[in-house]
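Cont'd.
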Amino acid sequence: MPVFAGLLIFAPFFPNSTIKIRRYAKGFCIFHLIYSLLFLLFLNPKGTSFGFIEKLPFDIIPSFSPLNSGVTVSFGLDNLSALMCVFTSFIVLFAMILSKSAITSKQRLFYSMMLILEGLLTGVFAANDLFTFFIFFNLEIIPAYFLISMWGGAKAKKSALKFVLFSCFGAILMLISTALIYAFAFDSNIATDFESLINRTVEIPLLVQLFAVIGFTVAFAIKLPVFPFHTWLSDAHTEAPGPASMVLAGVSLKTAAYGIIRADIQMFYEMFQLVAPVVIFLGAIGILWGSYLAMSQNDIKKMVANSSVAQMGIVAVGLASLTEYGLNGAIFHSIAHGLIVAGLFAGVEIIYLKFKTRKLELLGGISKFAPKLCALMVILCAAYMAIPLTIGFPGVLMCFMGSFSSPLPEKAFFLTNLIQPVTICATLGIILTAAYVLRFLHRTFFGLLEYQYGNLGENPNGNSNSGPKNSAINTPEGNIQLAQHQSIVLSVLAAAVIIFGLYPMGILDKISTFSALAIDTILTNIF
Amino acid sequence: MENNFIYFISDILIAIGAVLSIAAGFKMKEKNSFWGRKWSPKRHVMLLSTVLFLSLLGFIPFIGDFLKLTELSGLFSGLSFTPYFDFSKTILNGSLIISPLAVLFKFLIVSSAFVASLLSLPFVKVLNQRVASFSTLFLFVVLGGLLLSVSNDVLSLFISLEIISVALCFLIANFSGKKEGRLLALSKECEDNGICPGASFGIFNAPLEASVKYFTTNAVASAFMLLAASYIYLHLGTLNFSDIQILAINKLLPQSPLLNAAEVIFFSALVFKIGGYPFYLWVMDVFKGSNYAISLLISSTIQTAGAAALIKSALALGYFGSILNFALILCAVLTLVIGSLLAFRIVKKEGSIKDFLSANTILNAGYIFLGVSFFTKGALCAAIFFLIVYLVMNFGLWAGFGLILKNLKGDAEKDTRVISSLRGLAYISPAFTTAFTICILSFAGFPLMAGFGAKFYLLVEILRCGVWAVHPLLFMAFSSILCVYFCFKIIQFMFQKPDNLKVFKKNAVFNKTNVFTLILMLASALLFILFFISGPVIKMLNAII
């Protein structure tokens, strides 16, 4: 639906007014959020099967077998996918609201791209077979490319191309894996929707599973991103415009975590157990390396972007632990990270809009002029540091608990005996996170007011003189207060961070049955 | 013969058209008039298009049969169709076969020639008085393709390929539309970017050299084909495809390494026709040296004919089965890799558009070749489906690039026009850019477009041969990454802000309705439609193979 809504913006009868386009986009996002919520509410929270299944009435590629439906496009929702759809609509809505001040050119195209991106992301979560999942997972690259390259910073085009190349590398491996599964399904006359593949009665040969797992895992490791496939993220998320960064970091990365759960953990766990220790190992390196990269940044947006590598490393560790704690924690932390990082990107964008710089060395003392902004950012940062009673805490705790209690060391595979020492090292990432987040808070909001009004002459990329002049800002108090829409974005995100920190069962209730069943299947069959 | 007439309406019309073209050429040279109007090369090519259009109408009787095979006939139950398809009708002692597959190939060849003739219209001005012979040779190429479609033995296949090659050789040598200054510009460009293999010869006559290269390589390929044919006849005592198929089905084929070698030699010779590895160099030279219209003809009709020859031969000779088949798979994979590397290099260096299009032709030939090299029914079916999608994508690309080439002031610039000329297109015509972007994304294999559907289907059918097939596909993955890079680079050029927007905005040619924009829009729409109706099309292909 959002894809069509996005395309509708280009219809000849559509009003030209920017305000009307923005209102339409926001209105549609609200409608989509409510619509997604209804699905979530109507699903049985303890149910494990897919509901609301819809598919194309014809095959894209026929199978020539009465038992097999062929390759088609189908959608269906279970509790996990419905939850992720709601989460997507939620983040995109607030990105749209923030766009009012952040996007000043080609708004028609921008809102259209955002709606299309929302539709494609929803499609990833609502897909009910591997083909549909693949289509939406990769189509998402196109609007993301345009969002980064057309509204991004000075190096946006290069960063966007890098993002596309990394994503497409994964996509092609994933394509081969998907085709392999379909080739097997055609020959074995098995249905190819998620539920049939998860509860399959015909064993998929281990060699087929191995190739499939390698293809899928590399593709998801690039998107998540897991070390060493993370290099695209820093550039792409830094160069993207603020609202796009919110969606890309907040939701787009989670499609990879969702993919690991669906494909690797639920379908091909026999072979994923071989790869899982490597994922934990790389995830742990990602936590430490991402934190180090974030610590070494002078640009606050780059810091937030790099911190995603570390946070998603925690998710990877949780997922690959193959425990109920780990899986619940990974899903929870995916949502938590989405909310927090969207808030942080929004905050960074607001700071940039007010001060025309993102450099730590040029910022400072903002709390004196914008206490509300400071307070909200402190809440978001606290959650990022995984402080108890914020949304950041339960997920991280469960991921590491899962990793410690992983059954993988029982198997004498490559690296399995190192899982616990590696997890101990990975926990150091929390300390590093606290270090860079506190540095960010201290240098930006507290301390001396280093920002010299009227003297600032560089943009975040440091290569041109486009900063505000004396005439632009004379009274900082009046100009750096949060606008109403900015205030709404940060307040709601911060509120969500607190609410789900105090009551994590609001999310965990929806996913616990799902996780229990997925892990039970693994434990029963392979341990 | 009466019963067979309906199958040859298009052939007869094209043969008549070829004769008329020669006659009209002589008459027009004398009187300089064209049915009372002033004669011009463009009008002559319009005559060519009309002949091809009329021969396309000759396929109308088969619509009902095709719809029946797509299992969509229920949608048209109100209409009654006379069935014509006979799956085993042979004529001339089995040398020619009239099968649904033959009709499909004939349709593809005529329709591709028709669209190519339409897209050639603005580029034939330079041919002047020679346009009559151009049209005649063009129709001979199509006739060769039509004969190839119905050929049912090695010899008729060989003859039809030779008809195409001889006509094409003359076309390349004589109709370059060259100007004196252009040769120098060409050779300088080749030396500068190092892409043209002919650069090592210094300043050269590009069309003549291209023609000679084509002729010599073709001669070698023909010799290979004859050698393979003699080996096959030596072992089997027949060259008829149907007879060979019967022998294979009854498991009467002798196990001989020489027969396996014959198979590989035969297919290597056929690979030349589609510009596959290791015979791909002629494509680049010929594209550089020849007129836009001829390059387009090679990229569409000749490619279709080459693919048809490969597929028909694979259906008959693919039963031999040997370890040497891996050599063909390797060649197919290398065609893909080389095609994508060439295109990557051209786009990275902002090379000429025609060079890019030639690399594109090689690259796509690689996909068709890959499908054929596995010799299974499903993979062959996927190769035909890819061929259909390729034709649509290709016409979209040629229409887009053609409009850019057409939109130049001097001929001297035309062949040196580089990829970066696309810069700022999005600011001139968003509609044109959108349609062109769709074609390029389909070419890169992005979902919801037929290019993706065709590649996915090809992958599935290849992987049905076994998990080992993953290995060659890894090379395909490498090729696809390069493909994504240069496709997005082209898109990036289009969305870059031009230096002088005011000057660009005055240029409204991209927003006018003309044959180029119409074909581009149609191609981009078809790419979407083909993705969603690929199921019925694949069902039809499975039924006719």
